[in-house]
Amino acid sequence: KMMKGWMNKAKMPSLETFLDMSKEMGVKLIGCSTTMGVMNVKPEELLDGVDIEGAASFLHFASKAQVTLFI
Length: 71
Fold this sequence. Notes:
By secondary structure, the chain is mainly alpha-helical. 48% of the residues lie in helices and 8% in strands. The protein is built from 4 helices and 2 strands; from the N terminus they run ααβαβα. The protein has a two-stranded parallel ribbon with strand order 1-2. The longest helix is centred in the first third of the chain and has 10 residues, at 15-24. It is globular, with a radius of gyration of 14 Å. The protein starts with a helix and ends in a 7-residue tail after the last helix.
């Protein structure tokens, strides 16, 4: 809620708009299966279009990507 307020105040697009823009540009969103297990996050709780991969799969993908952002 606080973040939405900051974004509105700064006249930034919504998170939904940023996600739509990202998808249009071919951005791939990857959820970490290990972290999901530790945090008890179910696949159906993720946004549509998020791939679930382990660390080895992510590292393989990242090694060939032009840009990688790990959050």
